[in-house]
Write a structure and sequence with these properties.
By secondary structure, the chain is of the alpha+beta class. It is about 55% helix and about 15% strand.
């Protein structure tokens, strides 16, 4: 390796470059904590997107924003400019295209089945991976490594953190009533509360086919320990008058 090439490589790991990477990492870590806080509020109320999704999106957004504040350190900083004789190109337009393209890719892995939404965390992790690639592309190697560690740790262990914190699990319920039977929403609310659940506001969907009404809704437990299990709910629904068919599932993301 000649002297010029050695200076070029050294520019990516200079003291100034590493210092900027540490500042970027501090921003990423702060964004992660704030994203987790917002995500916990959603997770506590049984919403689809939880701590992992919000943490990844907030952290990736920070990564794509904070690097714009240090253009003098892109591509190894001043070492690149002094060796090539020109300033490094502005990568922000390329980043815009990457974010847009990856957004469509992430949307492709989000699936909805009834009241359940899956793939949100996977989509957020894809977007976070694009931010890692951008950091590597502009030469912020240390920050990229630290973002990778944070993202992987978040996906592996945030679910355990969610389980340890107080929460209100949600259940999606579909009930088909026999022909001619007219269900009562007030009675349904009372039955749900007696079993430790409340019907999520705005989640009720009613469909009528061949004189048979089908109700779909999400029930959120009043607390983690109050809601009865799906097996218990299933046994009780079999005995309810007027119910011809039903389906239960944990609302998950």
């Amino acid at each position: 390796m000649n002297i010029q090439a050695h200076e070029l490589v050294a520019g990516y790991w200079s003291v100034q470059e590493i210092s900027v990477n540490l500042i970027v990492f501090a921003n990423l870590f702060g964004a992660l904590l704030l994203g987790l806080l917002v995500g916990y509020e959603r997770s506590y109320h049984g919403r689809a997107a939880g701590m992992r999704t919000y943490g990844l999106v907030c952290m990736a957004s920070c990564a794509l924003t904070v690097i714009a504040g240090y253009p003098g350190y892109w591509y190894g900083g001043t070492a690149m400019g002094s060796l090539t004789g020109h300033l490094p190109p502005d990568p922000t337009r390329v980043i815009q295209g990457i974010v847009t393209g990856v957004g469509f890719l992430g949307a492709g892995v989000i699936m909805r089945e009834g009241m359940n939404i899956s793939g949100l965390t996977t989509a957020a992790s894809i977007w976070s991976s694009s931010a890692i690639g951008v950091l590597v592309g502009v030469g912020f190697y240390s920050a990229a490594i630290l973002l990778t560690i944070l993202s992987a740790s978040l996906m592996m262990w945030a679910s355990h953190l969610e389980k340890a914190l107080p929460s209100r699990p949600a259940v999606s319920i579909r009930m088909t009533f026999r022909a001619g039977f007219t269900p009562n929403q007030a009675a349904l609310d009372a039955v749900a509360r007696a079993r430790g659940y409340e019907i999520a506001r705005g989640s009720l969907q009613i469909q009528c086919t061949a004189q048979r009404e089908e109700w779909r809704f999400v029930a959120i437990s009043l607390s983690r320990d109050k809601g009865v299990t799906l097996a218990e709910l299933s046994r009780e629904l079999r005995e309810f008058e007027g119910i011809e068919d039903y389906a239960l599932a944990h609302a998950r993301n």
